[in-house]
Amino acid sequence: MIRIVTTLRLAHLESDARQAREYALQTTADANEAFGEHVRELYATTDRAERAEATTNEVGAILKRAMEELAVAQKELLLKDIEIRRLRTELDEEPLEGQTLTVLLHWGEPHTIYGSREEAYADTATHGRPLDHVWRPCGERPAAEFEWRCEPFIYDAGSSGFRRAFMPAPEPVGGAA
Question: Is-above-0.85 flag for pTM?
Fold first, then answer.
């Protein structure tokens, strides 16, 4: 079969081919642009995901440290609660008439309260006083004259609390006798 093609027909075919080529180039450009946009979105999404993962790891580490600190604080709180209960029980016990406490004074200022004079003496050893130190009565001299001084206090039901075991002699006021 032989076909005869005229110049006009040839011109139309060339025009159609040129339009098809332009359409193909335009479609390829649009496809490349769309592909580029998808790649940029993919990189942006990947970057956000990586930053989110890094943030999650940081938050996880912070949370882990916070939980460890919370556990330590809870243990301390529990120990303090136990100590408070012990002290409340001790406080709720009815004080006995004549029960004594010893207050350790440092240059006349209260330093620590002890259940016994021996505990107070032992504590002064931790502050530089030798264990074999001989403690002498202080008499009427002010407590501020002594580096370390132990003052006994005794429970007195009449005063609803503790009072000094040895009261100093009252001084006359304004020269009155």
Answer: no
